[in-house]
Amino acid sequence: MVEQASPGSKVAKNCLRAFLVGGAICLVGQIFKNALLALGMANDDASLVTACILVVIAVLLTGVGLYSKLGKVAGAGSIVPITGFANAITAPAIEYKKEGLVLGVGAKMFVIAGPVIVYGAMASVLVGLFHYFLR
Amino acid sequence: MKKYIGKQSVRFGNPPTVLEAAAIVGPKEGEGPLRDFYDVVSPDVLFGMDSWEKAESEMVRQSAELAAKKAGLHMEDIRYMLAGDLLSHNSGTNFGMRTFGRPFFGLYGACSAMGEGMGLGAMLLDGGYAEYVSVSASSHFCGAEKTFRFPLELGTQRPPTASWTVTGCGTAVLAAQGKGPYITSATTGAIVDMGITDANNMGAAMAPAAADVLINHFKDLNIGPDYYDMVITGDLGFIGRDLLLVLMDEAGYDLHKNLDDCGLLIYDRVTQDVHAGGSGCGCSAAVFASRLLAMLRKKEINRLLFVPTGALHSVASVQQGETMPAIAHAVAIENK
Predict the structure, then answer these.
(1) Which terminus of chain A, N or C, has fewer Cβ atoms within 10 Å?
(2) A71 at interface of B, judged by CB pairs closer than 8 A
(3) Mutate to test the interface with A, among B56, B57, B154 (most CBs of A within 10 A)
């Protein structure tokens, strides 16, 4: 009865928006990378610097309150790229600033991104072990 | 004289009067359909403070002070203050009330706080324990998001079933003697849990609690839904409202003509992007203190059943996979 009465999310529309915004973020990244390569930077270095640039942009957009608006439209499209990760760290840092720099910002900064770091690190260790023994 | 009747109701021997009320809301509520009925619409969501928590307390303080002033009373005339909110340890209320130095009962019934307070306040007055009491309930969108959900700037999507917490505080000053509108009866709700686990669908969790208290109210007082010009729930939203109608139909009570919901009145659901509707303690409190009391005074309605609804979950209970208990309290307010 509850499921009948409760409308679901519009999956097709949300997927399309996520695809377009997520794609656009990647396109912006590619433009930066190509520009860096054109300036003579090595491929690995260019990738690293591009990621840094995207993170800085996302942090700035979060700070001025625009990333949450983008997220409302794009959903996974703006959560999955590295910019979403930056947003997930910046948003709680802003929210908990009033509780102080140590127990507020410092402790709460990772409430959302923390699990990604913990399980991401664990997964990479496991994959590394498999790679080492099964090589 | 015995004043309790039926299973869980009281009928007041000397029905207390709703003497005055004050509603203070934030900017988004001030853009809503009830904009002309509020006492204060703050253009600043922080109410001049530097945190969401302090903003809510300031709202509580201003609203309690204004309601007493409108009633022509000094704070010393108020015998008891009853109030509740949604923040941890009722802190929005406790910090807002600390300057008054008046006897205080802190309430937690989630978004049903206004109904809980008005029922208890009326009992205090009818029992002869006070001449005046003040009842407040408040919520703040940003504070509630921080307490129950995510930081504000996190880029997430809200599901269509989610509701929007009202930034607002409503206070009613009740008096033992007065010219009405009168609180004639009250039914205290029991906790009802029908197994809903989705904290983003509070309307569905609260609808069975509302149905339970309504059915018991009608049975205890031996009346039907037609007795009231309006039966208004607190913050069921459109999903909870529809579910309540189904539950009441099944129980043999037809509420299709006179059921409304404060959460559906406070915002324009289409243009204000609030998904299922408004919610929070401040939702029913601010709507009662503004629009509903005005309707009673202008005799647009003469018999109102006010039924604030609350979902009693916490962040920890949801994370531990618990279902969501809910509660609702019914307060009947009538012109004579």
Answers:
(1) C
(2) yes
(3) B154
Asked whether residue A125 is domain-assigned, the answer is no
State how far the Cα of B288 lies from the Cα of B294, in Å rounded to an integer: 9
Asked if residue A123 belongs to a domain, the reply is no
- How is residue B221 written in tokens? 């007082």
Note the pLDDT tens digit of each residue in A106-135.
Answer: 999 999 999 999 999 999 999 999 999 998
pLDDT at A9: 84
How confident is residue A4, by pLDDT bands cut at 50, 70 and 90?
confident
- Given a cut of 50, the residues of chain B with pLDDT beneath it are none
User: What pLDDT does A21 receive?
Assistant: 95
For the residues A68-97, what does the mean pLDDT come to? 93
Cβ separation B204–A96 shorter than 8 A: no
pLDDT at residue A1, as a whole number: 84
How many residues are present in chain A?
Answer: 135
Look up the ipTM and state it: 0.90
What is the number of domains present in chain A? Answer: 1
* Contact between chains at B246 and A8 (C-beta distance less than 8 A): no
| DSSP structure class, residue B188 | P
* DSSP-derived 3-state class of residue B97: helix
In chain B, whose CA is at the least distance from the CA of A11? B159
Find where tokens 């197994």 sit. Answer: B195
Cα–Cα distance, B167 to B278 (Å, whole number): 10
pTM above 0.90, yes or no: yes
Contact A2 B243 (CB under 8 A): yes
Domains and CATH numbers, chain B: 4-175 (3.40.47.40), 182-334 (3.40.47.40)
Residue A74 included in any domain: yes
Sign of CA dihedral B145, B149, B155, B159: negative
Q: Which residue of B has its CA nearest to A84?
A: B155
Domain span at residue A86 reads 2-95
Whole-number Å distance between alpha carbons of B135 and A39: 68
A65 within a domain of the structure (yes/no): yes
Mean pLDDT value of segment A26-44? 95
HEC-encoded secondary structure of chain A: CHHHHCCCCCHHHHHHHHHHHHHHHHHHHHHHHHHHHHCCCCHHHHHHHHHHHHHHHHHHHHHCCCHHHHHHHHCHHHHCCHHHHHHHHHHHHHHCHHHCHHHHHHHHCCCCCHHHHHHHHHHHHHHHHHHHHHC
Q: Which residues of A touch B196 (CB under 8 A)?
A: 2
Identify which of B171, B126, B179 has the alpha carbon closest to the alpha carbon of residue B17: B179
Confidence band of A10 (pLDDT split at 50, 70, 90): confident
Cα nearest neighbour of B50 on chain A: A98
